[in-house]
User: What shape does this take?
Amino acid sequence: MIGVKNLCVDLGEFMLKDITLNIEEGEYFIILGPTGAGKTVLLESIAGLYPIRSGEIWLRGKDVTGVEPENRKISIVYQDHVLFPHLAVKENLLFGLKMQKTKAEEMANRLDWVSELLGISHLLHRRPDTLSGGEKQKVALGRAIVTKPELLLIDEPLSALDPETRESVQQELRQLHGALGVTILHVTHDFEEAIALGNRIAVIGEGHLMQVGTPEEIFRHPNSEFVARFAMTRNIFHGKAERKSNGDTVFKVDSTEFITAADAEGTYHASIRPEDILISSETIHSSARNCFPGTITHVVDKGSTLYVTVSIPPKLSCLVTRHSFEEMDLHEGKKVYVTFKASSIHIFN
Amino acid sequence: MSFLRYISKNRLTVTFVLLGALIFLFVVIPLGKMIFASASEAGTLWETILDPEVTGAIGLTLLAALIATLVGFFLGVPLAYLLARKDFKGKKLVEGLIDVPIVVPHTAAGIALLFVFGRNTALGQAFNFLGIQFVDSMAGIVIAMLFVSIPFLIDSAKEGFKKVDVRTEKVARTLGASPWQAFFRISFPLAWRSIFAGIIMMWARGISEFGAVIILAYHPMIAPVLVYERFETYGLEYARPIAVLLILVSIIVFIVLRTIAYRGDKS
Assistant: This one.
């Protein structure tokens, strides 16, 4: 088990206070928080790379708070990979094994194992600056796991990637976790990413740990305004995808059926970006396939834009500009229609 | 017509080319004229090359500058790393003071060094006990060169270390590298190009030093001092061949080192 006890870290501008986490052996644990919440520093503190104010770090029953980073058996993968630019991919992968004085035979075996596992055997002689973003990500992961760490720290692994690569790396991470059984601590600001990958999620913000729980608990039962907003401004649903006899695929949440462009069947998550949803006072005839009546239940004023929650049910968070908000005279309790395209629904695991 | 139109359309470029050409010629003409004038009297130049006093002086200059650079490398690179990586009180002051030799008149620098390393000073006597004297000796030439040229190496190495992402060191640490290993395996190789550029600058600056050296050690004579002495004693005609030789040697050394550095750049 990995334990973080009452950790306090000084970030100059503010403090991370009293962070306590208990991560199970082999768990995929997500730390979710907005940009600038000190997530990277939290990872560096756990790895021993950033001085902490107070608190303890425990790893497999041992207090490693005072242990040098090279003796902790904790690997880190940074957001922008941070490969060693002067070393070929192979040397990047072997670096940790060389530092740990691994025998030549064992080194060769591990190199084969990790490059096959990640599908990077063909890249071994390339230099990092010739690799694509996804390739760099794999090499960085390989370099981190080849030493068989007890804890793998991953910092925003998907945010620097384009959407397609992101999907495949996300898949890769899930498979990697399954294959290695290594404990992973992954930080992100992306709610979808957290739900897709995490066994459990810890939400941090305003220098504190706000809530720890399964993805379900976090987005069904947020324990604070902060977590609620973090979850609510993103429409994420748990439900069932079904193929209909007319060829459509629908995603069922509560008793509402959203028509989706995805081709899937089974239990999934679905998300709809608030800015993709149109609010109108009458039904709209358009190519958008989803149009539902609902009632405004909540309004969050963000200045020039507002988040308007419409209950069909389920509740949908929609982004509108102040101009349309005032022109349409939107207010809580008002009956409206919400419209969005089938392709606006994103289905994911 | 089209040429005139080009000029009127690119007035800034044309103006800057003219101004740039002036300063370029200002640098190149004296050097070129001296070298080509000597070429017409190749015999004199050849005589100069065979003059043991001249070759001795040039050899001494190159060697002393090399030793100064080596000392500067071993003491300067660690300081450069600290300045690039650590924040501490008075860091700006340290950085400023390290650069002072660049702006101090070099004869004044020589006087200052004499004041600390001279025969009758405590430090001078301590070194004397070890058999090292700084007045009129090779050691004196070396410390004079070291003093005036060390800022170039430290500044260049510091910039090099700053460009190395500190997280590469952090990753290395998590993979099992000690702070020493992280330095020698990651930071140093990554900053090496800047350090090497600093080494070239420092050596070149050492070779060209005159003011500080002449105060500490008129003898043994380094090449710039020999040029000065022949000019003072015998006049322009006698000073010129040595000057030409010194310029040629400097240029060749500079080109060779730049080429080595540039080849590293390509790989």
Notes: The longest strand of chain A covers residues 290-301.
